[in-house]
Amino acid sequence: MDTDDNHSDFEPRALTEFTGDYFGNYDEEDFNQFMESDDEPGDGDGDGDGDIIAAHDAEFECGWEFPAGPIPPDIDSDDSEDAVLQPQSHHAERQQAEAPLGQCPTIEEFSQHGAGAPLHCASTMAFKSYKDKLLDSDNKWAPFTSRIDYEVAKWAKLRGASLTAFSDLLAIDGLYDALGLSYRNSHELNQIIDQKLPCRRPRFKHEEIIVANEAFDVYLRDIMECVKALYSDPDFSPHLIHAPERHYADPDKTVRMYHDLHTGKWWWSTQASDHTYICTGATVIPIILSSDKTQVTMFRNKSAYPVYMTIGNIPKEIHRKPSRQALILLAYLPTAKLEHITNKAARRRTSTNLFHACLHHILEPLRVPGEDGIAMASGDGVVRQGHPILTCYSADYPEQLLTTGIKLGECPKCDVPQDELGSPDIPMKLRDLAAILAALSLIDEDYGMWTRACQECGIKPVFKPFWEELPHTNIFQSITPDVLHQLYQGIIKHLIKWIKEAYGEAEIDACSCRLPPNHNIRLFMKGISGLSHVSRTEHDQICCFLLGIIIDIRLPGNFDSGCLIRAARAILNFLYLAQYPCHTDQTLALLTEALTRFHDNKSIFVDLSIRTTFNLPKLHFFRHYVHMIKQYGTTDNYNTEYTERLHIDLAKDAYRATNHKDEYTQMTLWLERHEKMLWHSNFIQWCLAGNPLPQDRLPPDMDYRRSIKMTKHPTIRCVPLESVVHDYGATFFTKALAHYVIRTNQPGLSPAQLEQEASHGILPFQTVAAFHRVKFHAINAHGHRDSTVTMDSVHCQPPRKDKRKQIVPARFDTVLVNKDGGGTTGVDGYRVAQVHIIFTLTSQATAALFCTPGILPTHFAYVEWFTPFRQPEANHGLYKVSHLIRNGERLASIIDVSDIRRSVHLIPKFGPVAPREWTSSTVLELFSTFFVNSFSDRHAYLTII
User: Fold this and answer.
1) CA spacing 20 to 30 A to 278: which of 114, 465, 556, 938?
2) How far is CA 8 from CA 2, 40, 523, 771, 841, in A?
3) Any idea what the Cα angle at residue 879 is, between residues 878 and 885, rounded to 5°?
């Protein structure tokens, strides 16, 4: 394809006359051009796979479904969603609360005791020390002979090729000699890795734990060596945090801000306390643990029980990314089912004691260093006095009970009775650690007294729990919120079930399969009621549109649906707010308000006979979120989603690499080799980069900014103007372009003069170059664009056929347009529009049309407008918009593509019964009124306020 400057031939002989401006007077402003695309030549829109998916979805649009029921009669209600508008102050308060989140905070450093002060500098830094251990330090590829030798070895160990497959590959005649490799098969490569690559992370040990006169196998690492490995990793040294800080959202230091663990209150209070015996100048090293049993096979019921760890000195932006290797596999716990113990109570007791015995043995090395401290060298060679302290334990509910010894159905953190868990007002108090430790200590005196004392304290009689002797550790405080299991797989799962019971599955499915497509929305073309084993991802996808589809459905028995809508909105607000990467005292108040609103409206589920009580431990735990965020930072510091992802790499992939006999020995050896190659890869990058300069620590990033990315070449090089009108639906394209040209050339004209001038213009071309997709990439706090991930996209494609010759319906997405100086958040200055075509003009055409072509945008869009934003309605809080119609036609304009802020998802106002003739691909055209979906993704929730 040709480049943008010559994608269409200049054709001055065939002229198209402007016939007037039909669509009213709009104020258009010129914006600075975005950066020129850096796509490689030949980069297109990549529509091939998308066409197949769209055609597949189109097949289900005509499939069978339950017929629509009768439309229920109107119900007179003072709380109907059209009658009550949400006060503007609510949105203003939220905007004001969230305004500081995208800004750099005012920082108060911890000044007492010289926290984090260096003791001295080591003789060498980590990478240099590693280089000295290589046998051939002059060869930067050592122990491999060349770059090819190293790259092939890296591919073999990190890309999943089996040992046999790799050996067979190298056995191809002539391949070994052609590549000049130093190994002929997998065995020789493994020998090089085992013998010549230095070990930077501790090796696994196989030990036996005796419980109930039975030996159990445990594969573990020395936890102190793991802490040292993380702390001394040169990849992390520029970012390590050595002392707590207080971050504030204002210069007067009145509004506290929380994000990374060091901004929470726990680290500051631990460092400052006179009772923790942490020495002057010491560095607290918070240990974050996570454990969870997982299946490693589909059919043989084989499981693994990994324990992961990281340290809170590493910012969450690093340790939450599996590719950064900041989470270490600490151990594989026994997975014995103890089926030989026939008594179920005895079996559960033995299983609990086994878990605690294993973790007690694994964490024992923390006891003395946590109290007395130990010299720790970071990757830059600086040595500090470190105190490793178990700070957070991240786990799902069963694992929380196992860890704390609390009984099923109770809260693992506080003393609220089981039958009061659904109460939002009952006082709650953290479990009394001193009393529990006193009760546990009676095991050495009298067994009966021990069991009675444990029962009085509200815990199970656990023999020597692992946290009993750990210094500065309160396990009941350390249990952290669990977004994955408490929200997505907990209350969200319940909420979806309750809504299906309340409204009926048929109508919920009818609405969910008629939503217009959007980059952030998954279309459930068969509805959501038939889903089984619903994953976290699917629950998240359903939450993106759940509120919008239930707005107009009527409840049975003439119950007011406003109460249920408010309850659903409250849970969704809590879900999105709880996952903010940065919080202030004000946004945490919004979190508390959302929970209060749910409790105020939850009675509707009792009235509908869906629930009798709300004594759900996961719902009760919501009351702990605000306190825990203030203590340990935001929930992405300790989210179990990150360790669940590690199950794939460190348990399932490791198991698949074995012959399924004595698998743990092979799994740990596979993992050690894997880690060696990853560390060596980082070392090679350090050598090639020439010792890069340290990077500044990133401030809290709320993901507000996006950059537009256009492909270098158009999707279709020459689209006739007739096709623009008929295929792309740009009915008034020539008129809109005339209006844009005259407004740009003569901005001072009155509306009447503009109309007169536009009616006499001519177009010096008959084709335009069309782009079918706009991509948006995130920009981090340093202003760098991450082009590897498409955060959002806008499609504008006419009907077409895919590779299988199936019809793919047209798709013209809706967007949020900055029409009049819109800000970072809020809808002031913005307008919703539907994009029909994105196009460019040739340099010749631009020069002929515009007086100052050099400062014009490079890409334009033809859009049809929706009505301006007005106050959202009270129950659901969503904005309502409609197609902007004048004299029976939709109003349209030409805009600069850089004015598009993002895509926006519109949910049709279905009414009590969704019309069955509507489909996902036609609903935007067949109906006129929609709700702006602010829950389509987190960026939409943050910005469409």
Assistant:
1) 465
2) 9, 20, 36, 13, 8
3) 145
Please provide the DSSP assignment of 815-873 as one string: EEEE-S---SSSSTTEEEEEEEEEEE--HHHHHHH-S-GGGS-S-EEEEEEBPPP-PPB
Given CA atoms 322, 324, 330, 332 in this order, what sign does their dihedral have?
positive
Q: Is 720 left (phi over 0), alpha (psi -120 to 50) or beta?
A: beta
* DSSP structure string for 880-917: EEEB-EETTEE-EEEEEGGGEEEE-EEEE---SS--TT
Identify whether the C-beta of residue 271 lies closer than 8 Å to the C-beta of residue 113: yes
**Token pair listed for 21:** 């401006």
CB neighbourhood size of 445 (10 A): 9
Q: What are 798-854's pLDDT values in tens digits?
A: 999 888 888 899 999 999 999 988 888 889 999 999 999 999 999 889 888 888 877
- CA–CA distance, 394 with 399 (Å, rounded to integer): 9
Burial of 743 (0-12, 13-18, 19+ CB in 10 A): buried
Maximum Cα–Cα distance for the chain, whole Å? 105
**Closest Cα partner for 156 from 126, 133, 179?**
179
Question: In terms of Cα–Cα distance, which of 482, 767, 746, 792 is closest to 625?
Answer: 482
CA angle 349, 353, 358 (to 5 degrees): 150
Alpha carbon 301 to its chain's center: 30
pTM of the complete model: 0.90
Query: Quick check: bond before 143 cis, omega within 30?
Result: yes
Q: Are 768 and 719 in contact (CB under 8 A)?
A: yes
3 state DSSP class of 769: strand
C-beta of residue 842 within 8 angstroms of C-beta of residue 6: yes
Structure tokens at 88: 């503007």
Q: What are phi and psi of 736, to 5 degrees?
A: -65, -40
pLDDT digits (tens, 9 = 90+) for 736-747: 998 899 888 888
737, β-bridge pairs: none
- How far is residue 349's CA from residue 343's CA, in Å, rounded to a whole number? 10
**Position 116, amino acid:** G
